[in-house]
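Q: Give me the 3D complex with 3-hydroxybutanoyl-coenzyme A.
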Amino acid sequence: EDAALQAHFDAVIDADGKVEPRDWMPEAYRKTLVRQISQHAHSEIVGMLPEGNWISRAPSLKRKAILIAKVQDEGGHGLYLYSAAETLGTSRDQMLDALHTGKAKYSSIFNYPTLNWADVGVIGWLVDGAAIMNQIPLCRCSYGPYARAMIRVCKEESFHQRQGYEALLVMMQGTAEQKAMVQDAVNRYWWKCLAMFGPPDADSPNSVQGMRWGIKRISNDDLRQKFIDATVPQAEVLGVTLPDPDLKWNEERGHYDYGAIDWDEFWATVNGNGPMNKERLATRVKAHEQGAWVREAALAHAAKQQQRQQK
Ligand code: 3HC
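A: Here is the predicted complex, encoded as structure tokens.
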């Protein structure tokens, strides 16, 4: 019987169909989805922190309102994604526990500090720009709940990217100090954003299987290249220099060539030793502990509702 179920699953994947929560699926497929979707959810929730730091210091009411909306969106993305992972039979408590005990991964990019206001613009332009590049193909992922969540997430990410780019355009028309802040933020974030796409294809253990299952549609290196090709002209319009002396149009390839990414630094950060890892986790753990009363109150309320319905 298992062979028949496997054959049906393979046929769905081959036909580019969707796998839904109640369908039979190989355990390894379920496991890889839980891994990726929960890591993605954690990234959204931890991703609220670097920008959240700037809400109280935004330079105007308009910028503050935009930033609050954006950070709130990231929280919403985390919630859709935890829900999508729950449809695979893992509980939210299990996922949060893995995050809080340092076992779960989340995106490397959120372990760097936000030192000046331009960082908020650069996170919108480059970090969210990279996130969209990675997430558009996930809208076609073979697992239905993940693919559907990604459609809405991508629409909201597009607003995030634009608000960041627009904030930077305004700063680049400002004083010499403002322009220098933008360039400084670009210098600090550029290489980290290229690493967001994950290790080179040759060193990416999950890629071959992820592609076979229709979870991944475009490889880490191909997405990185697409991001670079799309971003160079935007940097020119903005008037900033991307900090890579090897960045050059290659006529033959029809793509920009670029310099070497520091993968040692990337892995150190992924493995818990980046500049902000400890602080980010401590902040999440504290928020979870301080929010215990909300979870208890919600459970008490739900129990009362149920009792009332039974009467
Ligand atoms: N940061 C941290 N870990 C990373 C990473 C990164 N930038 N890139 C890769 N890794 C990890 C992988 O998770 C994997 O670890 P594991 O096997 O222990 O789970 C290991 O490095 C090897 O990488 P692979 O390429 O083999 O792994 P994948 O096939 O899973 O590809 C990925 C990695 C491209 C990040 C893929 O998991 C993916 O597309 N994930 C969904 C998107 C996502 O998580 N985005 C998060 C950042 S964007 C964001 O949060 C939104 C923003 O608006 C705030």
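A quick observation: The chain has a mean pLDDT of 97.
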